Amino acid sequence: MADVTHASLTGVDLHECKGAAAATSGQFLIATGSGTATFQTLSSIPATVTVSGVTLASLIARIAALESKVGT
Questions:
Q1: CA dist., res. 51 & res. 33, Å (int)
Q2: Residue 20: which H helix or E strand, with range?
Q3: Please, what is the end-to-end C-alpha distance for the chain in angstroms?
Q4: Which pLDDT band, with edges at 50, 70 and 90, does 1 fall under?
């Protein structure tokens, strides 16, 4: 096998994340914190998760409000 690092890959050499083929529409890639990631639905992620002091539930509400303003 050639000695190629992921950082140097471009275009057709890039690939989807492991597990993407089995993920269903609407799932997100979520880091587990142990060096791996899994595809999950938003409903399976605790709403109490915070990023920079903002809860996931609050962020989702903000996004939904913005979407309703632009009509998507």
A1: 14
A2: none
A3: 46
A4: low
